[in-house]
Amino acid sequence: MLLQELVERAAPDVAQGIVVMAGSEHLVPFLGPLAARVLDPSEASGPVVRIAAIGTSDVEDSVRASAEGLGGRDILVLAMRLPPGRLPVGRLVETLVTCGLWVVEGAPAPARGLGCALVVTRDDSAPWRSYLLGDTLARAERSVARLLAEHVVEGLALRAQGAELRSRDRARTLELEQVRSAMAERDAELEHARQEIADRAADRSVAQLRRQVDLQEAELRAVTEELRRAQRAEYDARHGGRVMRAIGLVRHDPVHGSSRVLRSVLRRRDRGHAHESTSENDDSSV
Amino acid sequence: MGAWLHSVRQRPDRSEAAGRVTGVAEMTDGSTDPHTVMGSQEARAYWDTRHGAEDDLRSGGNIGMSEAGNRLIYALRVARLIEVTEYQSAPTAPLRVLDAGCGKGYFSRAMASFGHEVDGIDTSEGAIAECLRLAEERQSFAVSALADWCPPRLYDVVVCIDVLFHILDDQEWEASVRNLGALVRMGGRLILADHAGDQDRVWARHQKTRAASRYEALLADLGFGYLRFAPNGLPGADVGFHVAVRAA
Q1: How far is B136 from chain A, CA to nearest CA, in Å?
Q2: Per-domain boundaries in chain B
Q3: Is residue A169 part of a domain?
Q4: How many CB pairs under 8 A join A and B?
């Protein structure tokens, strides 16, 4: 319900104009066409609708100040910044009653930046209005009896429901904490398992590499051995014939054979291996 | 929610049909005698079966009309509902609404979407199961007859859309209205769909309207002030909402 609607409902019957209290001027744009009916306080001469902005702190003092000088048939609209769920109910009700104010209507969020609004008056014959629907209700004996019964009976049920809801809320909070704790444990276990898997994978890689190195080393050893055998065979093939010829020469000429063999070895040493490839049938090359 | 209050297309003679709640052609059990009304249990079984067999709108709406036709009428009824609940919306401190005989919950969901907190009840377990399946924020549902619902809270608005004229037993009808009225808080509204005519009338085996004067008398006895009759505005149908406010 808009602020304009709240004021419109109150204004036609009892008010001659609208007075916006000092410090509440920012509410004027929310009055729409009713803004034209806003009076200077000094101009007001009869019942008026007074509009007062109430901040989030010092609510009681603000309400008390707004009610000062309120005429018997005036209407006071308390435009409160606090949302309905955060109203200081006890202090507010106490202040309203001690100021001699009757609450005739309440509405949530009547304008941007406002949490709720209360419409109050000192007129004890003023009708009150139903929540949001705005139906006017007289204070007849039966209606007061019904209100009282609703207040007591529904209040009793609401108290019990509130307690049940809070209990359920506590249980849920506890359950949530347990679930969170269990999840944290699981996360830690999961992280540990991940680490373990990673370590095992690394171990497996190292072992595999070692096996590969062993294999390659064995292959290298085999190739080296084969190469050595091949070199020896080649050497034997190259040098074995000369030795046999030297032996034959010494046997054939025991006087000069050994000298010839010695000279031949020395020459070969001097010439180096480059001349070793000369004909094997040449005696001078033995 | 019960069957919609007729389709003009079903009636070749509009003048003859004027004021009727529904055509006999809408009946699904083959009976042509509209004066042999169903018993209470039979009616509940009928609606449970119908909610299970028909689509979302036809199950509670006009079974003789297409889905599109029903959709149009449902939209119109939602508009009427908004009118009789004064165009108010306050999700931070919502109106508490009871949709009595909610069927598959079309109106409950609509009202909740406007920021109201809605309880829906119906005797059909199948319909309530569908409501629960589709339920979103600010909605709760339960299986209950209108006369039996007794939650530990009061409502700002109780709506009963096209259900009371499907309660064929007069005692059950009165017990239902009394119970729904008892659930409305001071200043709250009771919105009951029925006929504007001033005499009781049986239209079909599953449809019986009560005189508007009976509603007014009963509501006055319950501490309600009768505000007005808000017609649906559908051609040829004299059906709408009795709107009353609890004043005592």
Answers
A1: 20
A2: 8-246
A3: no
A4: 80
Which of A119, A137, A155 finishes a domain?
A137
Nearest CA in chain A to B248: A143
- Of A83, A33, A91, A78, the closest CA to residue A51 belongs to A78
Do A157 and B152 make contact, defined as CB atoms within 8 angstroms? yes
Query: What does DSSP say about strands B117-122 and B96-100: parallel, antiparallel, or unpaired?
Result: parallel
Residues of chain A found within 8 Å of residue B186, distances taken between Cβ atoms: 130, 137, 143, 146-147, 150
d(CA A90, CA B83): 36
Listed residues A105, A137, A169: the one ending a domain:
A137
B245 touches A: beta carbon within 8 Å? yes
Structure-token pair, residue A125: 């014959």
Per-chain mean pLDDT for chain B: 85
Closest chain B C-alpha to A49 CA, distance in angstroms: 23
Q: Of B152, B154, B187, which is closest to A135 when you measure between CB atoms?
A: B187
Range of the domain at A80: 3-137
| Residue that has been written with the tokens 């084969």 in this structure | A226
Position A230, amino acid: A
Q: Is residue A216 part of a domain?
A: no
A177-193: per-residue pLDDT in tens?
999 999 999 999 999 99
**pLDDT computed for residue B142 by the predictor:** 98
Mean pLDDT value across residues B149-172: 95
Asked: is B8-246 a CATH 2.60.40.1180 domain? The reply is no
* Model confidence band, residue B37 (pLDDT cutoffs 50, 70, 90): confident
Which of A131, A143, A147 to substitute to test the interface with B, most B CBs within 10 Å?
Answer: A131
Q: Cα A108 to the chain's mean position, in Å? A: 33
